Amino acid sequence: DAGVIQSPRHEVTEMGQEVTLRCKPISGHDYLFWYRQTMMRGLELLIYFNNNVPIDDSGMPEDRFSAKMPNASFSTLKIQPSEPRDSAVYFCASSFAGFQETQYFGPGTRLLVL
Amino acid sequence: DQQVKQNSPSLSVQEGRISILNCDYTNSMFDYFLWYKKYPAEGPTFLISISSIKDKNEDGRFTVFLNKSAKHLSLHIVPSQPGDSAVYFCAAVRTTSGTYKYIFGTGTRLKVLA
Fold first, then answer.
1. Cα-based torsion angle of the residue sequence B41, B43, B46, B49 in order, rounded to the nearest 10 degrees
2. Is A108 left (phi over 0), alpha (psi -120 to 50) or beta?
3. Per-residue model confidence as pLDDT tens digits over B41-96
4. How far apart are CA A71 and CA A21, in angstroms?
5. How many Å apart are CA B102 and CA A48, to the nearest integer?
6. Widest CA span of chain B, in angstroms?
7. Contact residues on chain A for B21, CB-CB shorter than 8 A
8. Do residues A105 and B45 make contact, with C-beta atoms less than 8 angstroms apart?
């Protein structure tokens, strides 16, 4: 298996623009997670899905952030409008089942909002 | 409110010696703890985990110790190797009403000197 795939790997955009990050989880995994990593706060869980259904989005910082999982093999994280403080590395991860299962992370998308 | 803290941002250890990475938490309701390793430009990878009902878990060179009374978690790497140089994140998981809360520390950068 190719592992968790994220695109793009790098994104530079201007404040106010819409940003869409994409993730393809490992086939057969039931859970998908979106994280954000910053120097100040480390890794933060933004939202996670179970069988394509959002379970907990309490980590989403603001209404500007939204995530969808239209099918088992694809998820998006959208920021609209983007702000400089959204600059971070965004990781997607997937796991087979349950919180005790190992999460497999993608390589991340490095976002810079100017 | 940082519920999971890694107070040492960096650590240097000589090759062959023991590396001890520490993590403190504030919430006694966490069910599970995990350690992840992260190389630059890559996503975190799972290392080892421990349930809150145990006090030790060992996997090869890696051992995790849990001291619930002190709300303290540590990862021991023996012997340390240059390839262990990475950022290490501890994470705590809490189940609440069927949902999972993952909280990560800010990471400790380990450098193993040859």
1. 110
2. left
3. 889 998 999 999 999 999 999 999 999 999 999 999 999 999 999 999 999 988 87
4. 16
5. 10
6. 48
7. none
8. yes
C-alpha distances out from residue A47 to A12, B77, B90, Å? 23, 32, 19
Residues pairing with B85 in the sheet: none
Structure tokens at A7: 């695109």
Strand pairing report for A109-113 and A10-13: parallel
pLDDT at B1 over 90: no
Q: Across the interface, which of A4, A45, A102 has its CB nearest the CB of B102? A: A45
Per-residue pLDDT reduced to its tens digit, A25-68: 999 999 999 999 988 888 889 999 999 999 989 889 889 999 99
**Joined tokens for residue A95:** 């796991």
Best of A24, A36, A37, A92 to substitute, by most chain B Cβ atoms within 10 angstroms, is A37
Q: Do the beta carbons of residue A79 and residue A69 sit within 8 Å?
A: no
